[in-house]
Amino acid sequence: MDYFVIEGGRALHGRVKISGSKNAALPIMAASLMCDGQVVLRNVPDLSDIRHMQLILQRLGMQVERTEPDVLKLKVVDQSNCHAEYDLVRKMRASVCVMGPLLARRGLARVAMPGGCAIGIRPIDLHLKGIEALGGVVELIEGGDVLCKGKLKGTEIFLGGHFGSSVTATANVMMAAVFAEGTTIIESAACEPEIEDLANFLNAMGAKITGQGSPRITIEGVDKLTGGEYTVIPDRIEAGTFMVASAISKGEIIIDNCKLEHLMAVTKHLDDIGVVVEKYNGGAVVRSSGYLKPTDITTQPYPGFPTDLQAQFMALLSLADGNSIITEKIFPDRFLHVAELNRMGARLRKEGPTVVVEGVKQLIGAPVMASDLRASAALVLAGLIAKGTTEINRVYHIDRGYERIEEKLKPLGAKIERRSR
Ligand code: UD1
Predict the structure, then answer these.
(1) What is the pTM of this model?
(2) Active site includes 117?
(3) N or C end of the chain: which has fewer CB within 10 A?
(4) Could you report the per-residue pLDDT of 92-112, keeping only the tens digit for each?
(5) Same domain, yes or no, for 289 and 226?
């Protein structure tokens, strides 16, 4: 099993190129199930989650091939299997994104119910509610699978839940509605850039979707989607992670292939903390002034502060001059990194869905355990600045969402090594 060894305390300087967005690429790959003809996707990161989606799609009768480092070619060759099995779905929740496309294109989707995961209970009630509103018949069958079938008809759907909008539920319902008869309106749709990207992809293949990026998405049903080429947006969470790397190490990093307009809540908080972010060459340059001010952060659906950067900002605010408060409004249990950061000398106190962060002067290297994707990123960031050696175990979590993060950090001056045991 791989682990990282990091010698902390070096300021990072240089340039880094951000990869394509994992969370945009995954549903777009699933949407290719609906296309007649070959789909060529560019700017697709080479990550274990992407390879996992490739495997699921292959089992569902697709040819999927990586023809260049960031290019995937996908084509449906056999429509007979409509079953995404538990052994595949349980390893990655985003597997549930095949439900909408299978139902829309093949009239049947059998998908294992995803279980809970390290960041908490994650239901799929909104996905199913949306599909039922479209006229799909949804049934929980033996083996913990959900069976969806039927001919879909356009309608108005309110898709808000207890925690606001849902990203993958919006993706699933939007995809299901592409071939529905008539017009579908999704109210309280997720506004995330990844949903906008999915809608733009579907439109490029022949769908008629408007309003993407807003809480009201309208889908006019069409008869078919073609194949074609599409370029996935850059990963805003990877970009935000490297912004924190620059800030926490008191360095200066030029971030290429990054859309600052997708990171407004993040750059606003960096500004509050005293970190300079400037537009540069189609990306950004991020510079730390050396002094970190405390701030309060509440995670929210887009365009609010992303839950996927909460852990990384907690590592950063651990070193601020004063107390910060971080409140998690999307996944209230997403705090597994708290205990590990405390092992490195942070002073974090969890109270319900809130963590009080008391700034300390220094973090200290320690052996720590990665628990989920973004928590692992926070531990890498903490290790970059901690005194002495940090060993991060279970880095397969980080490989799910960051393309060889150590290979991107090393040229910036980080002393980080991947080892196996
Ligand atoms: C997506 C992202 C994930 C990110 C999350 C929130 C992908 C592949 N993953 O996950 O990285 O952390 O958005 O930005 O894009 N909920 C329900 N019922 C449902 C669905 C969700 O109650 O049917 C709740 C969830 O438990 C959570 C909230 O809604 O509290 C938002 O979750 P959701 O947006 O669905 O997250 P994902 O799409 O799974």
Answers:
(1) 0.97
(2) yes
(3) C
(4) 989 999 999 999 999 999 999
(5) no
